[in-house]
Design goal:
Blueprint lengths: L3 E5 L8 H15 L8 E8 L1 H12 L7 E5 L3 H5 L8 E9 H11 L3 H16 L8 H17 L16
Parallel strand pairs: 1-2, 2-4
Antiparallel strand pairs: 3-4
Helix pairs in contact: 1-5, 1-6, 4-5, 5-6
Keywords: Cytoplasm, Endonuclease, Hydrolase, Metal-binding, Nuclease, Ribosome biogenesis, rRNA processing, Zinc
Function: Single strand-specific metallo-endoribonuclease involved in late-stage 70S ribosome quality control and in maturation of the 3' terminus of the 16S rRNA.
Cofactor: Zn(2+)
């Protein structure tokens, strides 16, 4: 894998969160080649609702927890112009909230690992400068990349029956 992930995973050890994150990063790099640059690093925090609530309030002025937050450090044009050689570049940070993700997985009839994989892919695409909130066309394009990346991981289309519940 080219994208280097710094993973902090205090979630219950029911799954190998680091392995899941690495597989999600590999899959998303297949569908969004700009993320395959070996210079890129990103941090991924598997944390609590309380921590994500604090981050959401502080950085997005939204006083509630959400399932995933992403904090890009590069503009999309900077990412697309990034040469393959040079020093490491921080792509950004992603935080996932355990309690919200657990509840959403149960509501959707998914395993926590499946939902987390989707949210990691979703968050990485946000770090790449994609945004589903810009327009319906942007949402459709981002969802298509998510579906392709998740299919590479053997995970079904998360948009088959319901709307996206991501808060990133």
């Amino acid at each position: 894998m080219d994208l280097d992930l710094d993973i902090e995973a205090p979630w219950p050890p029911a799954a190998d969160w680091a392995d899941l994150a690495e597989r999600a990063a590999e899959a998303v790099a297949e569908v969004a080649p700009e993320l395959a640059n070996q210079r890129l690093t990103a941090s991924l925090l598997f944390t609590s609702d309380a921590e994500v609530h604090r981050l959401n309030r502080e950085w997005r002025a939204k006083d509630k927890p959400t399932n995933v937050l992403s904090f890009p450090m590069l503009e999309r044009d900077e990412l697309l112009d990034l040469a393959p050689d040079g020093p490491p570049e921080l792509l950004g940070d992603i935080s996932l909230a355990c309690e919200t993700c657990t509840r959403e997985a149960e509501e959707k009839g998914l395993s926590l690992e499946e939902l987390a994989a989707h949210l990691i892919v979703h968050g990485l695409l946000h770090l790449a400068g994609l945004d589903h909130e810009i327009s319906p066309e942007d949402a459709t394009a981002m969802e298509a990349l998510e579906i392709k990346a998740l299919a590479l991981m053997g995970i079904a289309d998360p948009y088959g029956d319901a709307n996206d519940a991501t808060g990133a």
